[in-house]
Design brief:
Length: about 350
């Protein structure tokens, strides 16, 4: 039997890698896409086929985590075997500007989706994109037993979703799990997160297109892994014998200064000549250090990452250089765009 997966946030970094991963394993994939005034599917366009082709296994549906009735209809129509809730207002700095919107999508949105699943297909397996931001002020190393101390509206919203997921597991017996993922990046990372901002700048400066980049706090430590490896961890959580919560991390802490060293070093530059400070990128409360211990995921799920923050800095700069050379995005340029023309399809 073909397994059916539903992914919210399919147009994001993780959603695109997860859709690729599941399609390659024979899944039928249903992605929820929010309506925007311009196309927002560039990360998954290379996966799309003519929707009229009976062999097509990627189906996109309009939907928004703010709209519980739509989510209920979608879950009822699709009847998924697995639900991956990746959609969120996912930017920590922005959550200080938009705390109420962040709560509506990143917290209440999860409750809407969990309730839709509980009502229509409680046997479906549910993955919640929880975050190492939950640990916040609690010093590393952090694992599944580490106390939470959220330091932003985003983290507070994710904490609500974490407990709603556990509550649906404990209260209703649902197979609902939290993946507590430490930062994971890739050439598809949004351009306003610090790693991609740095690697794009390094490539653009090396190409003579820009001269400098503005950043905030350079002292923070993050445990950066490769997103393409983390989506396999998500899937493995839903294939486990028992529902449980897991940390995914590399165990390697890297400061932003060290990431800058490798990124600019890859193109033969010294970042000190090109980085300027702008206080607008500081946060009212900062998370100083996140370094995860993923022993449980390794022992129970057999999941083990192979790329750490330094490896990522090099990989991402090389991808951004290639993107500049080809005047497009490498993961799109390598495959043809859909040949059919149906602009009403998300
Ligand atoms: P991302 O690139 O920012 O993607 C977020 C996705 O959510 C996008 O598809 C976005 O749609 C969608 N979305 C936003 N608001 C929505 C709404 N109101 N209704 C429906 N969809 C909405 O994030 P990511 O890096 O892939 O992360 C995936 C998930 O993991 C997020 O929940 C994030 O908070 C969590 N997480 C990420 C990391 C990390 O380091 N990447 C670590 C821990 C946890 P548009 O494309 O239209 O914007
Ligand atoms: O890249 P960031 O914005 O990621 P942050 O805040 O760690 O959040 C990411 O990882 C979380 C997992 O731990 C996810 F849950 C969340 O959705 C997101 O994917 O910032 C990383 C660090 C921070 O300490 C920030 O203060 O970089 C510092 N930073 C310094 N200058 C900057 C900048 N961050 C951004 N975005 N932009 C700057 O110019």
């Amino acid at each position: 039997m073909t397994k059916r997966a539903m992914i919210t946030g399919i147009t994001g970094q993780d959603g695109s890698y997860l859709a690729e991963f599941l399609l390659a394993r024979g899944y039928e994939v249903h992605g929820v896409v929010r309506r925007a005034s311009s196309f927002n599917t560039h990360r998954i366009d290379h996966l799309r086929r003519d929707p009229h082709d009976p062999a097509n296994r990627l189906h996109l549906h309009y939907g928004d985590l703010s709209d519980g009735s739509r989510l209920a209809c979608l879950v009822d129509d699709i009847r998924p075997d697995e639900v991956y809730n990746l959609a969120a207002q996912s930017h920590v700095r922005v959550s200080f500007d938009e705390p109420v919107h962040t709560a509506d999508i990143t917290a209440t949105g999860t409750a809407r989706l969990l309730e839709a699943v509980r009502r229509s297909c409680p046997e479906a397996r549910f993955y919640q994109a929880s975050s190492s931001e939950l640990f916040g002020a609690t010093p590393p190393p952090q694992d599944e037993r580490t106390p939470f101390h959220p330091r932003s509206p985003y983290a507070a919203a994710k904490l609500f979703s974490y407990w709603m997921t556990r509550n649906h597991r404990e209260g209703y017996g649902m197979f609902a799990v939290n993946g507590i993922l430490f930062n994971h990046e890739s050439p598809r990372r949004g351009e306003t997160f610090v790693t991609r901002k740095i690697t794009r700048a390094a490539a653009a400066i090396a190409a003579g297109r820009e001269t400098h980049v503005y950043l905030g706090n350079l002292d923070a430590v993050r445990d950066w892994g490769y997103a393409a490896e983390y989506v396999e961890g998500m899937w493995r959580m839903l294939q486990a014998d028992e529902p449980d919560d897991f940390v995914l991390a590399t165990g390697v802490g890297v400061t932003i200064r060290e990431f800058l060293d490798v990124a600019f070093g890859t193109v033969g530059l010294d970042w000190r000549d090109h980085v300027r400070f702008d206080p607008r990128y500081l946060r009212p409360t900062e998370v100083d250090a996140l370094i995860g211990d993923a022993t449980k995921a390794r022992e129970v799920l057999g999941w083990k990452p192979s790329v750490d923050g330094r490896g990522l800095a090099k990989l991402m700069v090389e991808a951004d250089l290639e993107a500049i050379e080809h005047a497009g995005r490498p993961w799109i340029d390598t495959v043809p765009l859909p040949s059919w023309n149906d602009p009403d399809t998300p």
